[in-house]
Amino acid sequence: MKKSSVWLAGILLSAVLVASCGEETTGFIKNTFGEYISAMELKYMIDYNEPYRLIDLRPASSYESGHIATAKNISYLKPSNLMYMINQPYLLILYSNEDIIQKNIYMSLRKSGATNVVMLAGGIYSWSYGLATD
Predict the structure, then answer these.
(1) What are 57-83's pLDDT values in tens digits?
(2) Distance CA 91, CA 30 (A)
(3) How far lies 96's CA from each of 8, 22, 119, 121, 124, in Å?
(4) H or E segment and range at residue 10
(5) pLDDT, the chain, mean
(6) How far apart are the C-alpha atoms of 20 and 114, rounded to whole Å?
(7) Residue 93 bridge partners (DSSP)
(8) Contact status, residue 105 vs residue 79, Cβ threshold 8 Å
(9) How far apart are alpha carbons 126 and 89 in whole angstroms?
(10) Which H or E element spans position 124?
(11) DSSP notation for 12-78
């Protein structure tokens, strides 16, 4: 039993290494994959002026009481307002205070063909770098 687990882990690791080989890419967007980005990765993008658009999906009253400094508030009730941002040369990052809200918008955009969209893992609750109230 133990040998088969080690063998399976070796095969999976080999598959990951083979999949990661190939065309070398540069830039943060090209190296980001999956549906989530961490708060630390977002902080890096903000600090180093990486190309991104940060969308706060919470109601305006929540946004006004505190949001991530570079975020733009677009109500989660209007996902069509985000369509002009899909497949642009920047990473579209969604966050909310409810995971289901950001997942629904994420899935709607992905179904519409968006390839440049991710969610902030943990939403606003994962952000520990201070909030703006402008």
Answers:
(1) 999 999 999 999 999 998 766 667 788
(2) 9
(3) 38, 35, 9, 10, 6
(4) helix 2-20
(5) 79
(6) 22
(7) 54, 118
(8) yes
(9) 26
(10) none
(11) HHHHHHHHH-SS---SHHHH--SSEE-HHHHHHHHHTT-SEEEEE-S-HHHHHH-B-TT-EE--TT-
